[in-house]
Amino acid sequence: MPQSGATSTPTEDRTGQRSAPATTAGRAAGARTVTRVTTELAHRTRAADIFPTEWVRLSERDFRVTAHWPADHSFFGPVNDLHQDPMIIAETLRQTAMALAHAEFGAPLDTHFVMWDLGISTVPSELLLADAAEPVTIDVVCSEIRRRGRGLSSMRTIMEFHRAGRLVARGTGSMGCTSPAAYRRLRAGQPAGPGTAISPFPPVPHELVGRRRAEDVVLSRSDRPGTWLLRVDTGHPVLFARPNDHVPGMVLFEAARQAATAATGGRVFLPSDLASSFNRYTELDSPCLLETEVFDKSGPGEEARSPDREDNGEGGEVTVRVFGLQNGEPVFTVTLASAPHRRTPGPPPVRSLT
What would the pLDDT profile of 93-102 be if each residue is shown by its tens digit? Predict the structure, then answer.
């Protein structure tokens, strides 16, 4: 999660040369080649958990990706009777960025990706279950590309998501690429693997955090209002599909969304905006405390409110900032906003890597 500190001067890849793709299955499509997304490229173990399906290269740094957001996914399923889960956008962005890094920019398949930030902006009212069968078209621009020798050191992706002829979301994320040897040095002295994780705390009621199943709850009660303990279940088939020696970013995004839901009264919280940043890895072997700060939209400014204040029922705009603390140190921050009356997605937050 943290920026692990590439200190070389950023260099842009303007050569137009490409490393051999990692693992692809392509077919001719006119003058362009269609590359399919595999489980290896998306870092998933089950095909059902892969949302981008294929892409074509439009230029040196521009790509068009096709994705599908299934209505009945076991984790990223419906949040109510009308809408799909906006968090599927963040996961699609993450998978797409890794697949392109491998196949188009030469990152080996054993690369460890370090997510530095991720942000999305969407129109939740456009994420209709009725449109779930429609393909999603994602226009991707890769920027701020850094090379280490012939390999990829870091990259930002900026994406626009269209479905059924409508712009439904924008997103961006930046990540670093670490070799297995460098990752071992980086993680030296840290517990190795899921077997070192503390036992999962008891979950809060799934209704409180907007989930339909108790096994998908990633929060546990703490001793202070407006705060929760991160509940880590390394046996979860989606959140921990692959062995990991730290808490994956997907878990932290979900924890932030569940905390936002609980902090605003347990009603359905459809994130229209998500912005995240990471200070360091969230470890498996010690508790992680989540603190929330809730803001109502009030005229030209925002007014902070108590986490236990009742919702006014008007369905207005609300923002929740979630802080993750471990051993007294900050590990991540996620800010989520719910704007139910928005008609077009705003620009996602972009933090320069340079």
Answer: 999 999 999 9
